[in-house]
TrEMBL record:
InterPro entries: 3-OHacyl-CoA_DH_CS, 3-OHacyl-CoA_DH_NAD-bd, 3HC_DH_C, 6-PGluconate_DH-like_C_sf, ClpP/crotonase-like_dom_sf, Enoyl-CoA_hyd/isom_CS, Enoyl-CoA_hydra/iso, NAD(P)-bd_dom_sf
The organism's place on the tree of life at top rank: Eukaryota
Designated gene of the protein: ehhadh
Keywords: Fatty acid metabolism, Isomerase, Lipid metabolism, Lyase, Multifunctional enzyme, NAD, Oxidoreductase, Peroxisome
Domain called 3-hydroxyacyl-CoA dehydrogenase C-terminal: residue spans: 474-578, 615-702
EC number(s) recorded for this UniProt protein: 1.1.1.35, 4.2.1.17, 5.3.3.8
Keyword Heme: no
Naturally occurring in which organism (per UniProt): Sinocyclocheilus rhinocerous
Domain (3-hydroxyacyl-CoA dehydrogenase NAD binding): residue spans on this chain: 299-471
Gene Ontology annotations for the cellular component aspect, listed alphabetically: peroxisome
Keyword match Transmembrane: no
Name this polypeptide is given: Peroxisomal bifunctional enzyme
């Protein structure tokens, strides 16, 4: 867990050996304590260097250990002892020094960083704080404002920024460990007291209270209801107002309030769920680690609408040459100008040059004959998409992968019109595609494992979180959205307003309430889908009872809003009003209020007071209930996959963990009881009827999310 060597006859080299990230597990802490003890007591040793194996200094505390009882030497006394030692200790930072790893570097008397290293205190993203002295040492080293920013955001910084801030003493392009050993030899016999960061006086800004207040406001606005950043601010205040011995106690008290909190559990779950989601498997046994992806050097995008443009940008900025195709000259020219502008702005922000030489714009599909992969991003119309796929089949070489960016249409039906169904897969990007991190990779029954592996890895290369899902209407994300949206509109009928429902959801932590989100996405999209599926429009049988369709409750209010030409932000009117078309500042609209009142009186609905609790329960439990059905149907392989989709694609708050984790945190028994209650009150809403899997899990004693897979006996796995 740590290797001890004597190098250059007098330097103790301690190498952390806990792959893959040299996390500070109990065994590693034990080994560090033993090695330090040895080094400090061996008269041959004049200095110590600490480094990590495989070019990675240390990824911090072992997060997996947080779930169980705490064992092994505690970190704070171990680190304090390293700092207090009488022999110089130098940290050789390669790869990463994160969390406890950064705190380990901070107790070393000198820090040498490789120029590619990254440093940071990401604890706040895990719902905790840097409780191994990080909140007390970093402000002493770099001052309150810079330390506050790093600790409350968890941002990783480069070695160069660390040097500028005064965190590291030297940045090197050579082997950091060798440089550190030479450095250590030169440090022997130099006084150490000024190198002990805990003994420094924190440089304090003139208006400390004002600064802390401003940061508190910022944090509350950005991360509504999240506890950890606020605790971080309090800990940093202690560094400014207390001696180290007291500050460290305050840090530990604050950590105790966070450590076992639901938010910390949820955020740590998210960390692992994100990593689990890439690990797809198929019933055939093919999976992420035994399927070889193809190398993609060139790609083509069909359609330069909002989605197509975002996908072109995402591909070009990772070095893939892209041919962009449009059907008309004017559309091609507009799309081209927009893509170039987006790439230039993106490159400027990242301080690199825009990769415009990778782009080609064309009106002819014939130009695609040699590309490795095509992503179709035309209008969401099955007949049109089929025509495109038939054409691609003729034009592209037989080995070209054909992908569709549909948000819910049948991927296998598209595969069926091609000469290569095994090379067809869905790549469902989220808008704007160059910003949103989520990618649903939709596996059709005929998609080959090589095709799936290629789409998954390509997504990762584009900086996306790729999740493999099965092929059904709406896949995972949009399929679950339906019951969620339905509950929101039923609540409108019953007496709530769009702003009340949005506020409840935003207070819960959603980036945007359901009505603001719908206004942003455009209300006409759903309207067209409802018309196509016979739920509204001229094809609806007039004998249908007014608020029922296809044998279940139906709320026509969204159709009425669209009939008035209110399509959301783009028309300046939707569920809210905006100062102009394309405006983003949502204001409640009295016309919507009138529409709701007239609607209720027309149908004799007596509006009632609806509590925020009912809003949250009906919207979120209906959402999770559909998630359970998706698991039963084999459309998602694991609850983690569903949660990752909602975290990265739909603004579900990370500190809630995602809909499935949230359900488990509330308690499956309680979710079942509330769904039964609401279904009894609304028997014509099948989405409120508890799913068989939920009932089964409750009957099995409500196991934790990670164990649900053992209870899912999927008859027809689509994955
Ligand atoms: C950037 C990375 C390090 C690497 O990224 P990448 O190369 O892309 O690789 P990944 O796929 O992300 O990771 C590879 C695998 O490694 C696993 N992993 C990564 N980091 C860790 C970790 N820190 N612990 C465990 N496992 C880790 C990852 O899951 C992958 O596994 P697998 O292959 O999928 O199986 C990147 O990984 C990264 O960013 N890592 C996280 C870095 C981080 O967040 N570090 C901070 C950790 S928290 C910390 O350090 C805290 C320090 C203070 C601790 C003080 C503890 C005191 C406890 C006292 C509590 C008192 C309360 C008492 C209350 C009571 O009374 O009960």
């Amino acid at each position: 867990m740590a290797r001890y060597e004597l190098v250059k006859r007098s330097v103790a080299l301690i190498t952390l050996t806990n792959p893959p990230v040299n996390a500070l597990s109990s065994a590693v802490r034990h080994a560090i304590a033993k090695s330090m003890d040895h080094a400090l007591n061996d008269p041959k040793v004049t200095a110590v260097v600490i480094c990590g194996e495989n070019g990675r200094f240390c990824g911090g505390a072992d997060i997996r250990e947080f779930a169980g009882p705490l064992r092994g030497p505690p970190l704070v006394p171990l680190l304090d002892a390293i700092e207090a030692g009488e022999k110089p200790v130098v940290a050789a930072i390669e790869g990463v020094a994160l969390g406890g790893g950064f705190e380990l570097a901070l107790v070393c008397h000198y820090r040498i960083a490789h120029f590619k290293a990254r440093l940071g205190l990401p604890e706040v993203t895990l719902g905790i704080l840097p409780a191994a002295g990080g909140t007390q040492r970093l402000p002493r080293l770099i001052g309150i404002p810079a330390a506050l920013e790093l600790i409350t955001t968890g941002r990783h910084i480069s070695a160069q920024e660390a040097l500028k801030l005064g965190i590291v003493d030297q940045v090197t392009e050579q082997n950091a460990c060798e440089v550190a050993v030479e450095f250590a030899l030169r440090a022997v016999a130099k006084p150490l007291s000024s190198r002990r960061v805990s003994m420094l006086t924190t440089p304090c800004p003139p208006d400390l209270d004002g600064l802390l207040e401003a940061v508190t406001m910022q944090v509350k606005k950005k991360a509504r209801g999240v506890m950890a950043p606020l605790a971080c601010i309090q800990a940093v205040r202690a560094a400014a107002t207390m001696p180290y011995s007291k500050g460290i106690k305050r840090e530990s008290e604050l950590m105790a309030t966070l450590f076992n909190s639901g938010q910390a559990r949820a955020l740590q779950y998210c960390f692992f769920a994100q990593r689990t989601a890439g690990k797809w498997t198929l019933p055939s046994g093919a999976q992420w680690n035994n399927s070889k992806p193809r190398e993609i050097r060139s790609a083509a995008i069909i359609g330069l609408g909002t989605m197509g443009r975002g996908i072109v940008v995402s591909l070009a900025r990772v070095g893939i040459s892209v041919i962009a195709v449009e059907s008309e000259k004017k559309l091609l020219e507009t799309g081209k100008q927009m893509v170039i502008g987006m790439l230039e702005r993106d490159a400027k922000r990242r301080g690199v040059s825009a990769s415009l030489n990778l782009l080609k714009f064309t009106l002819s599909l014939q130009d695609l004959k040699d590309v490795d992969l095509v992503i179709e991003a035309v209008f969401e119309d099955m007949a049109l998409k089929k025509r495109v796929f038939q054409e691609l089949s003729k034009v592209c070489r037989p080995a070209t992968l054909l992908c569709t960016n549909t948000s819910g249409l049948d991927v296998d039906a598209l595969a069926g019109v091609t000469d290569r169904p095994h090379l067809v897969v869905g790549m469902h990007f989220f808008s704007p595609a160059h910003v949103m991190k989520l990618l649903e990779v939709v596996c059709g029954p005929r998609s080959s494992s090589e095709t799936i592996a290629t789409a998954m890895i390509l997504g990762k290369r584009m900086g996306k979180v790729s999740v493999a899902v099965g092929n059904c209407p709406g896949f995972v994300g949009n399929r679950m959205l339906k019951p969620y949206l339905d509950q929101a509109t039923f609540l409108l009928e019953e007496g709530a307003t769009p702003e009340q429902i949005d506020k409840a959801l935003e207070d819960f932590g959603f980036a945007m309430g359901v009505f603001r989100m719908s206004d942003l996405a455009g209300l006409d999209v759903g309207w067209r889908v409802r018309k196509e599926s016979g739920l509204t429009g001229p094809d609806v049988d007039p004998k249908n009872p007014p608020r029922r369709r296809q044998g279940r409750r139906y709320c026509p209010i969204p159709d009425m809003v669209c009939e008035q030409g209110r399509f959301g932000q783009k028309t300046g009117r939707g569920w809210y009003m905006y100062d102009k078309p394309g405006g983003t500042n949502a204001k409640p609209d009295p016309l919507i209020q009138n529409l709701l009142e007239m609607y209720r009186s027309r149908y004799g609905i007596q509006p009632r007071n609806i509590s925020d609790q009912e809003i949250i329960e009906r919207c979120l439990f209906a959402l999770a209930n559909e998630g359970f059905r998706i698991l039963e149907d084999g459309i998602a392989a694991r609850p983690e996959d569903i949660d990752v989709i909602y975290l990265f694609g739909y603004g579900f708050p990370r500190h809630g963990g995602g809909p499935m984790f949230y359900a488990s945190m509330v308690g499956l028994e309680r979710v079942l009881e509330r769904l039964e209650h609401y279904h009894q009150a609304h028997p014509d809403v099948p989405h409120l009827e508890p799913s068989p899997l939920l009932k089964k899990l409750v009957a099995c004693g409500s196991p934790p999310v990670q164990k649900w897979r053992e209870h899912i006996k999927t008859m027809h796995s689509h994955l």
